[in-house]
Amino acid sequence: MTQIRASQPARTIPEAPSQASRPVWLALGLFILGVGAASIALLGPLVGDVIRYHASEGAVNQVVGGDVAGLFLVAPICILAGILVWRRHLAGPVLALGPAVYALYMYSQLALGGDFIRYPGNTERFFPLYLGLFVLAGAIVIRAWTMIDSDRLPHTRRWVDRTLGVFLLAVAVFLTLGLHVPGLVDIWAGQPGSEYLADPAVFWLVKFMDLGIVVPGMVLAGTGILRGSPWAYKIKYAAVGWAGLLGASVAGMGIVMQATEDPAAAVANTIAFSSFAAVAVVMAVVVYLPLMRRDV
Question: Closest by alpha carbon to 123, among 39, 206, 51, 41?
Answer without folding.
Answer: 51
